[in-house]
Amino acid sequence: MNSVQIPNSLHVLIPCAGSGSRMGLNVPKQFEELAGQPMALHSIRTFLQMPEIKTVWVGVSAEAKGFSKDMWPDEERLRIKETGGATRHQTVLNTLSAMLETGISGNDWVLVHDAARPGLTVEAARRLIAVVTKDVNVSGGILAMPLADTLKMVSDKTTNCIAKTLPRDGLWLAQTPQMFRIQALKRALDDAIVRHSNVTDEASAMEQAGFEPLLVPGEWRNLKVTYPQDWALMNDLLNLKKIS
Fold first, then answer.
1. Which of 148, 154, 166, 186 is the 20 to 30 Å CA partner of 73?
2. Closest CA to 96 of 178, 4, 195
3. pTM over 0.85
């Protein structure tokens, strides 16, 4: 699929300030080398392959272990900003504010993407952009995968006993990017803080604000690297891609 032409500019925001504590690494996982380069760079380079993306913003914490400005590509569209907050929610908000302060229009689109999803492809990102921008009445959308596995609810967290099996019809696993208008997303995230509402991704904030984001089929390889076994699997996938 060729680059997507849309009336408003496209920007990317990658929150990159997490600690990655569940991985048990010495540095935050986004800066750990995966398949030959820091994990965060895989998705950054994917977006930089897309000429329709106007800017790519990466929100980091200056004090993070393993962080070095020398690791980033010398690309004028890439903006590395020390906008990291205590939570992903706050990092995204801080970075959105920084974007607006530079004069970027609040009506432009932003694609928020997890640094821990290095398997994103250009094709999947363009599929999301094409679907979301097809209808002017659409508020935004996310990549996601229909739930294929049987879903169990635990009765006792200490023993992991099964309480019941839940129906999986209509259930999807959320992925990223998640694509919304910059100002609308910032307002939804600000409102969630005022309400002391726990939002786990950008779409949930938009849902609470009364919007109905689209679900756009993603890809299995766009999995989130969370546990050590995920790291090994993604390393194999990315190395296989380089060989092919």
1. 186
2. 178
3. yes
